[in-house]
Amino acid sequence: MVSCCDCQVMVVFALVLARQLTMQMMQNPQILAALQERLDGLVGSPSGYMESLPKVVKRRVNALKNLQVKCAHIEAKFYEEVHELERKYAALYQPLFDKRSDIVRAAYEPTDEECEWKPDEEEELTEEMKEKAKVEEEKKDEEKEDPKGIPEFWLTVFKNVDLLSEMLQEHDEPILKHLQDIKVKFSDAGQPMSFTLEFHFEPNDFFTNTVLTKTYKMRSEPDESDPFSFDGPEIMGCTGCTIDWVKGKNVTLKTIKKKQKHKGRGTVRTVTKTVPNDSFFNFFSPPEVPESGELDEDSEAVLAADFEIGHFIRERIVPRAVLYFTGEAIEDDDDDVSEPSSVMKVKRRPTRRTIQTMSPR
Ligand SMILES: *[C@@H]1O[C@H](CO)[C@@H](O)[C@H](O)[C@H]1NC(C)=O
Ligand SMILES: *[C@@H]1O[C@H](CO)[C@@H](O)[C@H](O)[C@H]1NC(C)=O
Prior knowledge:
The chain is an alpha+beta fold.
């Protein structure tokens, strides 16, 4: 008999050997090509088994597939009801979100009782540290006299979330200081499924809108041409809104100077041109998906990221904004964001994560 120790040695040895073999194979282009060929051959015909079946059996398998399509349509109904539930619960959350907004923008001063919060045990400070913190806090209070509400609440949330801070430019920050609330509105019953993100701003020097909107259309029906891929509602497209920029404040534009040579006379003159500038506010003018559904690579990448962001704001940020403000929610989300791939594949599946435990299958 082999002792346990030997066993381990053998396993390790086998692993090393396998690894070496793999490395050698991967370095040999012929083996690699052959491997690829076999993989390609396997796609769509997992085993060749289906082909080997008698005609009468294949015929019945088709009947099973038709049943499967019917299942997909029932599943679509399931997700419609989930959407209804979401709408119902959204109405229950809303008063709390409204109160949050009131506190943030200083429309309401919470009572002492409402402000009582037991710190986590690990956050428990020693007496000495407490004293020090108190002194510093008082000093800070003297410096910044009378802050209103929770200053820069949403801007801080944006800065704390990688997905959003990547879009954030320095020139966006003074504008986002005026952001007072983000609301999620669901489409009404009987309407095509969608949700709208509303960004509420206080009056500011940059644009005259008080609300900027971004609407995500969803598809909650199996695709006729590919019914088996259905796995719940998917984001199919989005529309932004027109921002009424105050003259000279359009941060999504920049002017550049260009030297232009006159062909005939050979004189050189400088012309100014306006070109798009990086900005979070480009979020409100996403690329349009043409009827054909064909997109160039750039637009596709922009949209894939956009769907990801829209989904994230709806699912995570709006429901738990304070935890993104304090930073408490950030670590949990690190491995939560799936990679964007191509748009037509990235149709995000907004409700999938939340309802996994109550999937009908
Ligand atoms: C364009 O972007 C640059 C760099 O992000 C920024 O410094 C500049 O202010 C922007 N231009 C306008 C007109 O906002
Ligand atoms: C602001 O810039 C965008 C391009 O980034 C343009 O489409 C829009 O018309 C501009 N708006 C104003 C009011 O200048």
